[in-house]
Structure formats: C-alpha cells, structure tokens
C-alpha cells in the first residue's frame, strides 16, 4: 500500500487499523491519511472477493453524498440563481416546510423530520420526488426550537430535487457534469461498478454474515446513495480542505465549514455547516461527513489548517469505532509532526506598510499589528492577553477587509495626520491609537488624561 512514512509510524497506524478490523469483526476495512495533497499512508484489513481491498475498490459512502449535494446548491448560490435565505417554496412548492430557508435545510436546522414517511427507506426501493414531497406534511415537522440542530435525511432529498428543478436535469447528472468530471473522480457512482464490496451485517453473537440489500433510494438518493473509492474520497477530502479546482471558490467551501448549528451545547464538539459535518478534536477543527447505509460505513475528516485528512471505508452495517480516524490523526501528529520550514526574509514585502506595524491600543488594551509574508495584516492582542484577533486583506484603496474572527468582513481604515503619517486605526468605528486613549484621536479623543487615583 502507498506510504511515505517511517516504518515505526506505519506499524503504529497498521496496528490501530488491524485492531479495529479484528476486534469489531469487520469484513473489510480500508483507511488512510492525506497530507499536503498526497496520500501518505493507506492500508486495508480483511478481504473483498477473496483479496485485500485496494484504493480502487468501491464502497457505499452513505451520507457523504450530502456533501456533494451541498456543493451543487452552493454553485447555484454563487451563480446568483438562488439565495440561501430564500424560502423553499420559491423553487419547490407544496410542502409544510415551504417557508423554511435553503440555508436551514443545508445546515440541518429546518426542523424537518429525520426520515421520510413510509417504509424503512434505506432497505426498500425508493419512490419519486413527487411522492416524497407530498409526504412532507405537518407531521414531518419536529417540535421547537425549529432553528436548533436536527439531522434530516429528508431535507437532502428535497435539496436534490431543488437542484434538479433549477438545472433541468437529475441531481446526479448535474453532479457528474459539474463536480465529478472536473475533479477527475471517475469511480464515484450512483450504483456500484466493479470492483466493489458487498455490504454485510455481522451477527452480534456469531462469526457469520448477512448480505445487506443495496436498493435504489429514488428521491432519497441525495441523502446517501453514492458509491466511491479511497482514491476518490482522498480527492474529495482535499476539496473540503480548499483544493477546489474550478468547482467552487475556496472561500465558498470555507463558508460551508462555518458552524450553522451545533448539537451538544455551548461548548460544542460537533456541529453542522452548510452540508458539512464539523468536529473538534484536540487542537484540530475537522470538516467532512460520516456515512452509513445497510452494509457500509465510511467517514472523511479534513483539517484544513493542517492540510491533513483521514478516511476510512468498511463493508459492515455497524461496529467501526468513531474514534478510528482521530486516533490515526493523533498517531501521525505524535510520531511525524511537521518540521517547520526554515524562516527566510521576504524579498517582496511592501516596506511602505511597516509604518502600520507595531503596538496599538484599543482604549487601555494593547494590540499588535503585524505584516505577514503573504501581504496580510494580522491584528492580535498584545502581551499574551486574550481578545479579538483578525487578519486583513488590502482592498487596493488604502482600506483593509477582515478575513476572520470578530472583524470578519469589517473595514479597517488608516487615519493619517497632515504629514501623512498614521495616527490611528478606525476598525468599523472602533479607534486604535499608538498610546492608550490618545487625546488627539477621534472618539473618545479629548479625554482629561491620566491621573493618580484619588486626584
């Protein structure tokens, strides 16, 4: 199998994979790691048709399908064909959730039921879009708070139909043309194409297998129909991390990774963006999706900050530990953490910006403004204090726009004196000065000045 890691690291990763497959009695399991756009380790345990699975063996990836549907919706948004605040009724009328927004459906906060009415949809042939939509009546709404996290497979069936109506073609045909082909994902399909794994249920008290069905989910297919391979999922992991080709702008994918709803309280460890599941593990902020369909489990997690991803695919209905991928990421981080690149001066730095750098004060609070090697300004609290931090990109007219944190999207303007020298920073009306409460600066300028206590 592919690897570029030290033998000791390979063994540690393989042992974790082997323990997972053996102790949980998984018919076949493949897992791997991607770093900086390259698969640095992948291996498998168990067999598919009498041989080890390879990176070209298809598995059903279940709800990872939702991430593809979300990308199709975001493409429509970026083209101006819809707005995430638009109500569903504008495009797909006739359901009880017609006034809920497209964004709420994407972020799993629409209050729509998790499963469609009728028989167990994952194990029975699916119906038409008309049948699905007509079943979404008042009984499909869940109790308030309607804006809280509530996972809905139905919602993505509806979003698949939304894509089809706007594009005038089936959602999977649109996906093939707009996503899979441009990214070279030739082994991601709506139905299995050999070589592929058979899905199994493993008896809880005996070492025997039950073949699971692989029905066509019909209108519910956008919730979990796709089959794929490790190699294709590695490409998709890179996409989620920002290597988007021409399919979406990286800023749009970054928007998809922003939490839209969380499912476990104020200090969240898991949540949902716009079609992407989110998780926090140690110092990592992960984005991707889990997947489960009869006979199959799969997960893709990407850490965009570290440009590292972990993937697993298995042909079992249940049993793979959710900690498998985070354990693999931890092992990589412990045994082969990154070696920093050598620092070297930037030959292209704009030295006229040096006059903006250094210490500034927001009232009595110190901040430091740094010039980064990529031409961005970085405003951070000074002296190890906590506070609001943001990076800013130049707008070409002397102003700067915040990229992240509290000041994301806000405008930074540089105030200058008669001699053209910077005197203060105006950050969306908040004034930063070179000394605490500079009496000559606007708001709160003209204060009485510092004095001893009691005077």
TrEMBL record:
<keyword id="KW-0378">Hydrolase</keyword>
<feature type="domain" description="Beta-lactamase-related">
    <location>
        <begin position="17"/>
        <end position="319"/>
    </location>
</feature>
<dbReference type="InterPro" id="IPR056008">
    <property type="entry name" value="DUF7586"/>
</dbReference>
<dbReference type="GO" id="GO:0016787">
    <property type="term" value="F:hydrolase activity"/>
</dbReference>
<dbReference type="InterPro" id="IPR012338">
    <property type="entry name" value="Beta-lactam/transpept-like"/>
</dbReference>
<dbReference type="Pfam" id="PF00144">
    <property type="entry name" value="Beta-lactamase"/>
</dbReference>
<dbReference type="Pfam" id="PF24491">
    <property type="entry name" value="DUF7586"/>
</dbReference>
<dbReference type="InterPro" id="IPR001466">
    <property type="entry name" value="Beta-lactam-related"/>
</dbReference>
<feature type="domain" description="DUF7586">
    <location>
        <begin position="349"/>
        <end position="434"/>
    </location>
</feature>
<dbReference type="InterPro" id="IPR050491">
    <property type="entry name" value="AmpC-like"/>
</dbReference>
<protein>
    <submittedName>
        <fullName>Serine hydrolase domain-containing protein</fullName>
        <ecNumber>3.-.-.-</ecNumber>
    </submittedName>
</protein>
